[in-house]
């Protein structure tokens, strides 16, 4: 039996966490959803241009949270990573039911854990790059049956492989419900859970409780005024740092539409994380804490001791 090695699973292979570098911990190069008609991220050349702009800004890694069935373009990811020099982490998992045109049957829900494990260990679609995380999603202030079934499958896949689990929170809500299910009932260690979009619901007590539990908190989607991001994001981060939770914070761009890209759509896109937000973080928190959030924290959050499944 081979010894488990702690690594970040990228589309080009397992990576020493120390080599990950400055990381956009939640973003999308490709994405398709019936909820976003006409705004699909499906152009490899546009994705390459966005990655190049991010690299010029100092970016070295991107975690793409696009899950199963939402147009991941898995076959394009390895070449994009090689051409850009940016490490890419792909996702398996499932989003909210509304992002899929056909509802899942009971049999399909039962197959999810095996699907996730296969994409983490064998490759996406069998011959593509391996996923390095599992994406799941909650609802608005709660978890519906779809979310609970998907999270149960994600927990099973985590236990089989060690993979980290990233959670979409609708408008930033429901973080404690997710922790109760994933960590309390399903036994996923909180340090293997990344709670996304929490800046969209700036309840500092919930943020502190989630950080105290040991989960990672992703503040993502900067420059989205309709999600209460930029103008409260720094306050939320500063409050968590002051409370001693600076080692639980991650930052991401969460570019979900073609119009939001910097290189081809008008911006702010991936580079804004480093050209717009990073200088403000340095002024507020200093270089050391900013580097912790952009470099050291994602290296810990997405690095696990990968296991061979026994499913």
Structure description:
- The protein contains 9 helices and 12 strands.
- The protein is α/β, with parallel strands linked by helices.
- It is globular and about 50 Å long.
- The longest helix is centred in the middle third of the chain and has 17 residues, at 145-161.
- The protein has a single domain, classed as TIM Barrel (Alpha-Beta Barrel).
- The strands form 3 sheets. A 6-stranded parallel beta sheet has the order 6-7-8-9-10-11.
Write a concise keyword list for the protein shown above:
311 residues, alpha/beta, TIM Barrel, three-stranded antiparallel beta sheet, 9 helices
In short, what is this structure?
By secondary structure, this protein is an alpha/beta fold. The chain has nine helices and twelve strands.
Range of strand content:
15-25%
Per the CATH scheme, the topology name is TIM Barrel
Secondary-structure element pattern, one letter each: EEEHEHEEHEHEHEHEHEHHE
Q: Please, what is the CATH homologous superfamily?
A: Metal-dependent hydrolases
Largest sheet: 6 strands, parallel
Number of helices in the DSSP assignment: 9
Number of domains: 1
In terms of per-residue confidence, which ranges show pLDDT below 50 for 5 or more consecutive residues?
Answer: none
Spatially, the strands of the biggest sheet line up as: 6-7-8-9-10-11
- C-alpha Rg (nearest Å): 18 Å
Structural class: alpha/beta
Mean pLDDT: 93
Q: Any idea of the CATH class?
A: Alpha Beta
Q: Residue share in helices?
A: 25-40%
Count of extended strands:
12
CATH architecture assignment name: Alpha-Beta Barrel
Shape assignment: globular
N/C terminus separation: 16 Å
């Amino acid at each position: 039996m081979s010894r488990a090695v702690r690594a970040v699973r990228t589309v080009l292979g397992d990576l020493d966490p120390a080599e990950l570098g400055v990381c956009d911990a939640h973003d999308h190069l490709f994405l398709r959803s019936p909820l976003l008609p006409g705004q699909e991220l499906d152009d490899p050349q546009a994705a390459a241009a966005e990655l190049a702009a991010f690299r010029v800004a100092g970016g070295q890694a991107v975690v793409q949270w696009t899950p199963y069935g939402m147009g991941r373009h898995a076959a394009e990811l390895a070449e994009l990573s090689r051409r850009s020099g940016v490490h890419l982490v792909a996702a398996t998992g499932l989003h909210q039911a509304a992002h899929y045109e056909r509802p899942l049957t009971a049999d399909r829900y039962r197959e999810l854990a095996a699907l996730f494990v296969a994409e983490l260990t064998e490759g996406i679609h069998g011959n593509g790059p391996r996923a390095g995380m599992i994406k799941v999603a909650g609802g608005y202030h709660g978890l519906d049956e779809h979310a609970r079934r998907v999270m149960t499958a994600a927990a099973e896949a985590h236990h089989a492989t060690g993979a980290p689990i990233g959670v979409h929170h609708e408008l930033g809500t429901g973080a404690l419900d997710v922790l109760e299910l994933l960590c309390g009932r399903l036994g996923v260690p909180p340090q293997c859970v990344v709670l996304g979009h929490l800046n969209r619901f700036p309840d500092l007590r919930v943020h502190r409780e989630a950080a105290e539990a040991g989960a990672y908190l992703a503040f993502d989607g900067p420059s989205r005024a309709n999600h209460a991001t930029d103008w409260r994001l720094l306050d939320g981060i500063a409050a968590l740092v002051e409370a001693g939770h600076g080692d639980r914070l991650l930052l991401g761009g969460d570019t979900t539409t073609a119009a939001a890209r910097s290189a081809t759509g008008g911006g702010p896109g991936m580079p804004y994380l480093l050209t717009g937000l990073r200088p403000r973080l340095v002024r507020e928190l200093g270089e050391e804490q900013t580097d912790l959030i952009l470099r050291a924290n994602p290296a810990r959050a997405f690095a696990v001791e990968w296991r061979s499944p026994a499913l």
